[in-house]
Amino acid sequence: MSVPVEEAIAALSTFSLEDDQPDLQGLTVLLSTERCATSSPIEYGDVSAYRLSLGEDTKSINQLNTLIQEGKEMASVLYTYRSCVKALPQLPDSMKHKQADLYLETYQVLDLEMSRLREIQQWQASAVSKLAADLQRFSRPERLINGPTITHFWSILKLLDVLVQLDHLKNAKASIPNDFSWYKRTFTQVSIQWQDIDSMREELDNLQIFLSTRWVILMNLHAEMFRTNAIEDILQVLVAFCVESLELEFALLFPERHTLLRVLPVLVVLSTSSEKDSESLYKRVKINRLISIFKNNPVIPAFSDLHLSPASILKELSMYFPNFSSQTRLLALQPHMNFLLGRYRNILLDDVVYFLNLITFQRHYLIVNHIEAIRAEHDDFSVRFASAVNQILLLRSMDNADVEWSREVKGIMYDMVVEGFQILSRWTGRVWDQCAWKFSRPCKDVPSEMQENVTTFLDYEKVVRWNYSEDERKALLDIISYIKSIGSMIQRCDTLIADALWETIHVEVQDFVQDKLDIMLHTTFRKKKDLSRILSDMRTLSADWMANTNKPEVELLSLPNETEETKRSTFYPRPVAPTAAQKTWRLFASNSSGISVDDLKQLETFFYKLSFFLHILDFTATIGTLTDLSFLWFREFYLENSRVIQFPVECSLPWMLVDHVIMSQDASLVESILMPLDIYNDSAQHALTIFKQRFLYDEIEAEADLCFDQLVFKMSENIFANYKSWAARNLLDQSFLSAVDNGDNLFVQPMRFTEIYKLRRVKLLGRTIDLRRLITQRMNKLFRENIDILFDHFENQDLCAIVELQQLLSILELSHRLLSRDLNLDSFTLMLNEMQENLSLVSYSSRLSSQIWTEMHNDFLPNFILCNTTQRFVRSSRGTSHSNQKSDAPFVKSYFYCGSEELNKAHRSLSGLYSEFFGIPHMSAIVKLLGPRSLPWLIRALLDHISNKITAIVPKVNGLQEALPKSIGLLPFDGGISGCQKIIHDQLAWGSKSELKMDVLHGLKEIGSVLYWMGLLDIVLREADTVQFMQTAPWLGLIPGSDEQIKQAQDARDSPLIHLFKTATSAIKESKKNTDASYFVTMSKQAEAADLLYRNSMNSGNVLEYSLAFTSAALDKHYNKLSANPKTGFMDITTSKDFYRIFSGLQFVMAWGGCCIMYLLGQQLHFELFDFSYQFLNVAEVESVTISQQTPSERSKIPNSIQAHEHLLEAMRKARRLNNHVFSMLRARCPLEDKIACAIKQSGAPLHRVKFANTISAFETLP
Predict the structure, then answer these.
(1) pTM for this one?
(2) Angle subtended at Cα 788 by Cα 786 and Cα 789, rounded to the nearest 5 degrees
(3) With the CA atoms of 668, 669, 673 and 675 taken in that order, what torsion angle do they form, in degrees rounded to the nearest 10?
(4) How confident is the model at residue 1163 (pLDDT cuts 50, 70, 90)?
(5) Cα-Cα-Cα-Cα dihedral of 1156, 1161, 1167, 1169, to 10°?
(6) Which positions ≥6 away from 92 have C-beta within 8 Å?
(7) Distance between CA atoms of residues 475 and 331, nearest Å
(8) Does the pLDDT at position 1043 exceed 70?
(9) 590 DSSP 8-state letter
């Protein structure tokens, strides 16, 4: 069934094609060859249909416009001309015989370039001839009244401006005469064999004269103009027109104002060919007005990197026009004000005035001095323009709106567009003027940090790179943003307001032509036939009688006695644009024409309004011109002078502005970061459509690609650093922030990156780029790089740095979580596993776990000792040979740690508190970082290390056993402490076994360290299990019982979680509503699975118990070597082969490792009975009692050996207390009568309290 067209259209109108992408760029103009799409195709072709007296003038205007367009193309050729001589090859001495061939090839190449210069020479001759002919035609007496129109004036001035620019370019481009000299040299070499070359030589000489003579075009124009008639009058009229237009600001667009400023000094020189002419000029235009204009505009933009100075033009032309040299007041203007600020010695009064003028002009030209007013103007216009657009929308939504209100709304919209164009013209003109000022005032003081690296600087660096301060760059960026935003705002309303603009223009024209002009024809111009004929032709050409609802023109002319009220025509406004002839035929009236003041004022007001119509109707082209900032990139003149192929990107003004936004960290500029890229769009458009040079576009494209890559790179770093700083500050304790002195330095300035994340269609050189996707890719890369750097940082430190690693990874994870709100980043766990090389399903080790094990094996276990009181490991002051030297960590940027240097210091000071020991915080960090996947692997590696150490020390223990006497009895009490010490010293004759002794000591220390490390791990895991139990127990219905076992809270069969979903499912099934219960059935089954999963995880194991069981199994393999069974079945008090005898002779700090081995071997009681230190203490106690029972005289006769051995006795007491503590802990965790171990599954989940027989084979099967 087909859908009606009306319904389909109505359905399409409901779709929204808008998205949430903010408008952070200028006009999204694709690179097109047709930018002025609204220009009239008929031009002045409709004039001939009316058979009026305007045919000659329209023909002349068309010819002038053609010459202007051709002249602009010629100027583009000259400006973009680059020397061909630089690319010419140089023949080596071995190929000198082919010099003639090289000359011929060089001539053929240069001849193509010289042909363009010949075309310019020929064109200027025709342009000079045409311009002189028009000026001579208007200087005739019969054209005093019927003078040129303002349109004709503008065409004459624009053509003269093109000639001035061509002359200036020809004088400035040094590559042109250089190439011509090579061309002439090669022509001399290759023309030897030619015939009839006189005409070619003559043409070559003429071209040489044209290229080498300064201001030759103006001199040709002067000679051509004064060939027959005296045209000073028309020149003076042009001067007066320029002065009035500049003073009254008649020029809507800034290029028109620049045109007036460039041609005015030339017109003054041409019109003052004698004293009589100068006197007549100064009667028409006061010389003070000219001086004021020249003084207030000391620098005029000519091309992107070329400028003109009116004073310089006047002084230089005075040498070529002798009659002008008498104009002393004009020549007294100082062309350049390169006044050194530090020159205060021998200063003259003129220099003081000079210096004050320089400051005044600097305030005028620099945008930073006007940016506040510009910002206020931008905000005010944006509000008023939006209000006017809303009024237009309201008007279009109404069917029968009031005519007067409708005309008022459309008139306001027209006024707003005109005001917008004036604002854009004023702002863009300021940017032009500031650039010209900067080019005329290069920087003299290069930053000192750059002088250390580079000895020579390019001239372009002095006028651009070092010539803009930070405030000036910010102001320039702001005004560029304002220009682009206002231009975009007006352009987006093109189709909405087009009818209103055309209708308003139609009303203005028809109201004047049909009413006001008709009254003038019947009153003021009734007896002035010449003026009346001109106005009648203008009325005939411009009137729209089809819109008139009253009377045709014939009836109006036949009723001479009608009053003003009866003559007024009533017409309906129509959105019809006038043709080029209708909107440009404007009478130039002067005070000598006999026109009344009121009529003259009405004519001037109407002509002033008509001056805007051309630009309003050519809407898109006008906005394109006013927002074109391509001049900020082009630098052909400086490229030629610097003799380089292209300047580095650091010297490019667009990149300087982008880099300023990135480096300044100014939140208000972030959303303007893409505005400078529009300069590349403008310059690329200009290179293709105006200059028509592919090589320029290629250079722009290469630099734009590089800058955009750098933009994404640096902006991503800024985003990453900002979020890292944000996360690092959030993880700092608030009490620390309130107590620290420099808390303000830790404040993180919020940046407005949110709008940047929404940019999916960035327009750059006709391409559409997804900036959001590029930033996301860069963020993923930065996160992976950051994880890798943190691991490298940890690998260059000891195991105590694990807390710092955990803190830094927590900051990084929080940064990832914050950034994931706006960007679709990869999972942080995925990236962490990827950088740890732990993606395989069957891999339980990781980069971090391997590094932790390496650190424990190489550094922690050999070099750290236990402080049992604080439960911490600290580094021993006496390192061993196992300690490895760490390499210096490479320098990395601050944002890879905590985001900023201040936050880095704060977190470094906090992590430094944990850098000198290893304890519970470090173990918690290891558990969090490794997780349940890699932690079992590390536990297994440490247990294997215990097994290997036991295997390694058993032979060494046997070696120490061999050095002991075959029989060692109890220490006698009658010998006292001194006698016991001597007996121990004689029995422990290990002098030759010192290496074995040290190896056994180190081995026992490492075994004890591992076992205590397992105890710390068990404490941390218990805390985690407690937290998990508190979270899941209410849902599973579990509570701790009185016997320390977990039991159900109720006698119910199911847990509360399962009961909840089963009840909901039953209620849904029993309800009468047609509700699908399958979803609840599925959720009920998922609840049963979750109940089973979490209930099994409640049975967590004990790592220390498992480690002790594993150690016991490992000792059982060597039981016969470490413990001898008594032959008689009773305890042998004289044996010296058991392990406890060896440990008794070792140092006392080995309590953990030695006590564990003795306990697991069942030698605790033996040790407590026969340990040397224990016996020594018993003897000391007996001797102390004996001494206490003696009389004082007897005590004085016998030396007190207890006081002599007090330090030794105190050490023995500490060792006994420590041993008792260890034995009590071992009895609690691993009773000998009930060998209970805790197994660990392959998945990492523990099996709680699994009983194993105390056999080697049983413990070998443990995972």
Answers:
(1) 0.81
(2) 65
(3) 100
(4) confident
(5) 140
(6) none
(7) 36
(8) no
(9) -
